[in-house]
């Protein structure tokens, strides 16, 4: 076979697999084996093909690659149609992990609490022949729908739940909440209120469960939680309505609601932490720069994104393997919005 350089593709025409084969002096089947990382190609031949690919700026067709590998190297990502810190952070770090693994991500948003819309989005991704589907779930009804899905491709779910499942990847909201309440109890607080997230949010449900169980472990009074919607506005509204007096501590469902609560307490003449201790959840980038800097529970979204991708890779490339659902631990970040109750 001739090893003379292939003519440069004309303007307006991208290089194809035959151009690469001519330039490298190999068959187009050998080029295909290199592109798809298949065995039985000599290192020197592989290097020659890769050099030709780089010289011609060749980009293989995803459709052609799929015919060979039976995979598209594309993952469908279904996210809720909201801009909350948690879901957007999960999606971002999953995209980073997928790119590092040389997978493409087809992202689609759907209404957060609409199971029918979620099902329609999943069906559209199946028609695009994705290799797997990842769902970021923030509503209990959608979580139940996902549990009932019976698809021919792997499904991985980012969601908080007390029910363990190999398909679920999560951060340990329950123990994160317990660590927050434990901190407040250990610094002397005996009345610990909870501003929770939405009733239908799995994260909020697990945080309420952790708050209640830790209060019970310390034999402290359990006052019914009040529910917000994750926004600073709802934290402010609840902060103006709650029966809060000096000596009380408040465990808030997320940092955004904590921001609203801090504002409401200032308006009421209550000082944080001198009169009221406040602890949030998430550790958003702004948390350390609030007044006072916010004690909170940090979630490791970077690790969560990597773990989701790892579970996808195992499901796609090792079909018989089964992985466990081991929640990622949280970390308590103590700043200046909490202090021992007997400090002057």
TrEMBL record:
Keywords: DNA-binding, Transcription, Transcription regulation. InterPro entries: HTH_LacI, LacI/GalR-like_sensor, Lambda_DNA-bd_dom_sf, Peripla_BP_I. One of its GO terms (molecular function) is DNA binding. PROSITE patterns: HTH_LACI_1, HTH_LACI_2. Residues 15-69 form the HTH lacI-type domain. Pfam families: LacI, Peripla_BP_3. It comes from the Bacteria. This is LacI family DNA-binding transcriptional regulator. It comes from Nocardioides caricicola.
